[in-house]
Amino acid sequence: MDDLTRLAIRHDTDKFGLHDYTPVYDALFCPWRDRPVRVLEIGVGGYGHADRGGGSLAMWRDYFPQGRIVGLDVAPKQLDLGPRVSIRQGAQADPTVIAALIVEEGPFDIIIDDGSHRPDDVLASWRLLGQALVPGGIYVVEDVQTAFMMAFGGSADLSAPNHLAALRDLALDLGAGHPVEPALQRIERHHNLIVMVAADGSVPDLMQAPDALRAAAAGQGALWQGGGGTGAPIVALSVDRLSSDAALTRALEGRADGEALVFAWPDDTELLRRLFVDIDHHEIAAIMPGSPVLAAAARVLSLVIVPGGVMVVQGPNDFPSIRAYHLGSRRAVLAQHWVQTVLLDPETQPSQAQLLGLLDRALLYARPGSSGPIQRRLAEIGADDAGGLQLQILAAGRGGDWGPVATVALACAARSTDAVISDGYRLVAAWAWARAGSWSDLATYLGTDATPEELTLILTARAHATPTPEDGPEAEALTGMVRAARRDLREARKPQPA
Questions:
Q1: Is the link from the previous residue into 161 a cis peptide, with omega within 30 of 0?
Q2: pLDDT at residue 439 is higher than 50
Q3: Among 75, 419, 454, 467, whose Cα sits 20 to 30 Å from the Cα of 409?
Q4: 263 in helix, strand or coil?
Q5: Any catalytic annotation for residue 117?
Q6: Which residues does 68 contact at the CB level (< 8 Å), separation at least 6?
Q7: Beta-sheet strands, E only, within 273-327
Q8: Do the strands 68-73 and 309-314 form a parallel or antiparallel pair, or are they unpaired?
Q9: How do residues 187-203 score in pLDDT, each as one tens digit?
Q10: What is d(CA 280, CA 318) in angstroms, rounded to the nearest whole number?
């Protein structure tokens, strides 16, 4: 796992997990880690809440220890992320806001547009900020699947204004050798991402592509091969392989995952025009069912377009759609595993919300045995959330661990100032001890030294004598737990068949 992905998980940003952007970013930005880079990210997160968001800004701060990190958001933010991070308020398409931002904070080495995702805003930001890149600087547009979504101002036919269509046409002009503004070295297309790299005076040679470029081109293959694409060969093929979908599909057959195919720029660019869009073929299928897509798109991870040439990186393009996230997909399961690995690392200090989200996804993914370690970590950090306790009970009932249920229930009891609610939580803790077979803890709670069978009888009586909480959302949640305890204990007292 790369360092940036690990930081994204720790700082609770969706740049990994829901999206799988950080393997690409790590490959692109790793050579710059120790430089005093200037990073601008449009969109801070947290929506209209002043005290929420900032996870990705914290990620960039830690990834670039010498960097200056700037966030721009339309909503006011009150977040203290340290002296190297500043947050400005303003609209990403406002020329006055952007002009002041460039004067006071620019030029930028890296600009990431994770803002409104509306076509007109994305294109306005690119026009205003593209010139603010240093030579060789990198501009990224995230979540380009919104180009298909009417709710974001997109459309099925990508009619103007549309950022995916406009940046595709920019890439085709670059490949054909036409002048583009601002001057660019290359444009990359990955799942839900478009990357523009400012010209720096060098002439890119795809056959001699540096490791960073190749790794970035295959960066989203990290989940299936454990790293970037630098280990696979670069192969030059004749341009006739770009003449049709069938011809490119045949060229991709039998290739190693991460293998890069390099072509001279074709006279007929219709296939590349479609492929630039169809890399998001799962998004297209989820948003516009039945729409035709290229067969080759399922085997293309990335495109890299330079003046006079194009690199096609081969690999399984099976990223689940953000619109219809498929929890059973290989990439989703592996991403969940990576997130769990980081959050359960002793060096990580996860929040209760992060662990509850992880536990919820573990249950959704139906991975037997995966919830127990998460439950225990929740107990270790002193979790005392009623909703989280419900989730703990659900996990325990599906083969998880009942011990942490008791620990969290007691923490909830200690937090509550309502005697009835506290008693209810203590009953849930006792029920969990009984389910876990922790008879000494149960005996201490009941104040008696008895056999397990006798303890169960006493606890059953205690359960039915415990008042039922009545008012408020916490009481409502706890009532369901108390009823479950009563029902479970009543079933335990029934004679078992011989």
A1: yes
A2: yes
A3: 454
A4: strand
A5: yes
A6: 36, 37, 38, 39, 84, 105
A7: 300-306, 309-314
A8: unpaired
A9: 999 999 999 999 998 88
A10: 9
Which residue type does 216 have?
A
Cα distances (Å, whole numbers) of residue 152 to 89, 95, 365, 379: 21, 21, 29, 41
For residue 132, give the DSSP letter: G
Which alpha helices (DSSP H) does 344-450 contain, by range? 352-364, 371-380, 386-397, 403-415, 419-436, 439-446
- Find out whether the peptide bond into 107 is cis, omega within 30 degrees of 0: yes
Q: Which pLDDT belongs to residue 476? A: 82
* pLDDT classification of 223: cutoffs 50, 70, 90: very low
- 3-class SS at 260? strand
What digits encode the pLDDT tens for the residues 70-96? 999 999 999 999 999 999 999 999 999
Q: Which residues of 67-76 are buried (b: 16+ CB within 10 A; e: fewer)?
A: bbbbbbbbee
Catalytic residue among 11, 19, 117, 282: 117
Q: Determine phi and psi for 36, rounding to 5 degrees.
A: -80, 65
Neighbouring C-beta atoms of residue 50, cutoff 10 Å:
11
Per the DSSP assignment, residues forming a β-bridge with 435 are none
Count of CB atoms within 10 A of residue 279's CB? 28
